[in-house]
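Lab notebook, bench 4. The sequencing result for the construct came back, and we need a structural model before the next group meeting so we can plan mutations. Quick request posted to the team channel:

Model the 3D structure of this chain.
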Amino acid sequence: MKDYTIVDVRTPGEFQGGNVEGSINIPLQDVVEKEAEIMAMKEPVIFCCATGNRSGQAAQYFKSKGLDCDNGGGWLEVNAKQ
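Done. Here's the predicted structure in token form:
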């Protein structure tokens, strides 16, 4: 059983083109709206996207809210570490 949660902040179309098995797709533009849902996820939360830029923004935002989270970078990198 995983001891973390992976949140992919790419668009649904990007996510459908390939993703980390078991990851949750919440596009970056929706993360503030879904804040309570993300804050309740199993920590640490690992954010990923295509290159690490959007996931970095999400990680920075949620770290400021006290969430144990990290920027995993691109989803292919995260997938390779699984």
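The chain has a mean pLDDT of 96.
Will bring this to the meeting.
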